[in-house]
Automatic annotation (TrEMBL), chain B:
Signal sequence residues: 1-22
Protein source organism: Flavobacterium jejuense
PROSITE patterns: PROKAR_LIPOPROTEIN
UniProt keyword annotation of Transferase present: no
Membrane-spanning intervals of the chain: none
Protein name listed in UniProt: Copper-binding protein MbnP-like domain-containing protein
Keyword terms of this UniProt record: Signal
Phylogenetic classification of the source organism: Bacteria, Pseudomonadati, Bacteroidota, Flavobacteriia, Flavobacteriales
Length: 310, 261
């Protein structure tokens, strides 16, 4: 069950400081959920001023789950707390192509029968390239559109714990132990201050060296945003839906029962920017979910981030 | 733009080349040698995690609190995906599961040929063929059974299942003892064989020890296909009810899952 949203939120979370241009909002949202608590749901929505803007930022996200071993009618529910601190950066390499990097550090804990189990460590590093296929150039058009496609790779820099894979939540990990491949699209439509960001992405998981393969994962999100500007600040409230669909995990090429699932979240957030800095926060609450045969339930997710425009 | 597309293509190509470097040491096709297999017997009561001296209400309204729960598991046979079977040597295939002693819940079977197994079968009790070998033919299991209180006497034979505790009902309002002991009677030997399909194949390898998690629902002994009213007689060690209880054992076990770690 790969039900952890990968917070590869590829946001250009920075505000324009270019004195020659009006704020030019460009939203990008990528939520790459991953099997291993590895990631975050992203705030997914960021905003940035200029094309080709670069940023480096830090983000904290928390995911709260509860799980049940599913063995007995009176099995207790135990809480699981996933925490991630992530450094991210987005750098334009050539015109219309930007490369983003996500370096997560995870510190997760879960209650077990006799106390607590903790895991922590470097997570799986992701590198993602996005290509701008289309973008409306002028403000004069009634709608502004932008469409991007991209691909990326997630490297097994986080340690995969085989013993945890056999527990009720196989995703209690800091890494999948596998090389995984991301394919992403993003579409943004704007009319004056109001916009909608729609994104889809698919993560192909491969078998790791313990012959465990997390299920492939499909993520989608739609987020409305509104740009409110003052002379010093830009404020962008956001409201939307985000969903994740997980395929079955495999061990030794045999299906691991009750590892597929899906979840739909409602999300609410904002970004606020001033000068080189922007701050964002968002929260996600599940609307509907069916994870690991009902033995794992998401309670909520939230995140905060601080970005610096280079 | 061509240049950029080339870059993207290069990233994808590099990525795929990493993928193809993944582990080729495939255990699936490697079924040489022998490994271990574990059977876990997890006691439940009508679906709930079983606990001693806890009140459980049966379908007939009787409330039971169990304080002894033991049974003999024997003659384990494993069926491979191709339909062939591996029979655990008879001399190493008698076990007592005693809820009170956690170490007995897990049976480790060594020297199992590497294969994908799809079924497990075992007997409850000691089979007649073994019993007919006489006291001297019983090896050390006889002593083990005596120590565990799972023998009446040599002539009366083994107790296959022992379930004891206290109960109340609408007619028995103060707690009274109940004892259910199965085994041979004058007319019936009462040994039965349980065959369980595995919901996940057990992949025995030199490097993989599968663990088959079996749920043993103790409620089914007296509250199964045949509902036994303890109020009508709370000491059952023979008589017409014993075959009914023996029949109930057929639906007492279920494989919940198989770990292949």
């Amino acid at each position: 069950m790969l039900f952890f949203q990968f917070g590869l939120a590829m946001d250009k979370d920075s505000i324009a400081t270019n004195p020659f241009a009006k704020y030019h909002l460009q939203l990008e949202a990528f939520d790459f959920c991953d099997a291993c608590g590895c990631s975050a749901s992203g705030g997914s929505m960021g905003f940035a001023s200029m094309l080709n803007s670069n940023f480096v930022g830090i983000r904290y996200f928390n995911q709260s789950y509860k799980s049940n071993d599913g063995l007995y009618t009176n099995s207790p529910w135990y809480n699981q707390d996933f925490n991630t601190m992530q450094i991210w950066a987005r750098i334009p390499v050539v015109k219309k192509v930007q490369v983003s990097t996500f370096i997560p550090y995870h510190f997760h804990s879960r209650a077990i029968e006799n106390g607590n189990q903790k895991i922590q460590g470097l997570g799986d590093i992701t590198v993602l390239g996005m290509y701008q296929v289309f973008e409306t150039k002028k403000d004069s058009t009634f709608f502004n559109h932008s469409f991007q496609i991209g691909t990326g790779i997630k490297m097994p820099t986080g340690k995969f714990n085989e013993a945890n894979a056999g527990t009720v939540n196989p995703s209690f990990q800091v890494g999948t132990g596998s090389w995984d491949y991301l394919f992403a699209t993003e579409y943004v439509i704007k009319r004056k201050q109001l916009g909608l960001n729609a994104m889809l992405n698919y993560v192909v998981k491969t078998e790791n060296d313990k012959q465990y393969r997390f299920g492939n994962q499909f993520n989608y999100a739609g987020t409305f945003f509104y740009l409110y500007e003052t002379s010093k600040y830009a404020i962008v409230p956001q409201l939307g839906l985000a969903g994740e669909v997980y395929g079955t995990n495999y061990q030794y090429k045999q299906k691991v029962r009750n590892t597929e699932g899906d979840i739909l979240f409602g999300k609410l957030g904002f970004e606020i920017g001033r000068d080189q800095f922007s701050f964002g926060a968002n929260a996600m609450l599940p609307i509907n979910q069916n994870l690991t045969g009902g033995n794992v339930r998401a309670n909520y997710r939230w995140s905060v981030n601080l970005n610096y425009s280079l | 733009m061509k240049f950029q597309l080339k870059n993207i293509a290069a990233v994808v190509a590099i990525s795929l080349s990493f993928a193809s470097c993944s582990n080729d040491d495939d255990v699936n096709s490697n079924t040489l040698g022998e490994g271990n297999l574990k059977l876990e017997f997890d006691q439940i009561y009508n679906g709930a995690d079983f606990a001693f001296n806890t009140a459980y209400t049966n379908s007939n309204g009787e409330v039971v609190k169990v304080d002894v729960a033991k049974y003999i598991v024997s003659n384990i046979v494993l069926t491979k995906m191709d339909g062939s079977v591996y029979t655990v040597p008879k001399s190493e295939s008698y076990f007592i599961i005693d809820e009170e002693t956690e170490a007995t819940h897990l049976i480790n079977l060594p020297n199992i040929p590497a294969a994908d197994y799809t079924k497990v079968s075992f007997g409850i009790g000691v089979d007649k063929e073994q019993f007919d070998l006489g006291a001297t033919g019983q090896t050390s299991f006889l002593q083990t059974a005596q120590d565990a209180g799972m023998m009446w006497s040599w002539s009366a034979g083994y107790k296959f299942v022992a379930l004891e505790g206290k109960f109340t009902s609408s007619t028995v309002t103060t707690e009274a003892q109940f004892k259910v002991h199965t085994g041979q009677t004058g007319n019936d030997y009462n040994y039965n064989t349980i065959t369980l399909d595995l919901p996940d194949n057990a992949l025995v390898r030199t490097t993989i020890t599968p663990q088959i998690h079996i749920m043993a629902d103790l409620s089914k002994i007296i509250d199964g296909t045949n509902v036994i009213n303890l109020s009508d007689g709370a000491t059952i060690m023979g008589g017409e009810k014993l075959p009914l209880i023996t029949a109930n054992l057929s639906n007492m076990f279920e494989v919940h899952h198989v770990h292949n770690d």
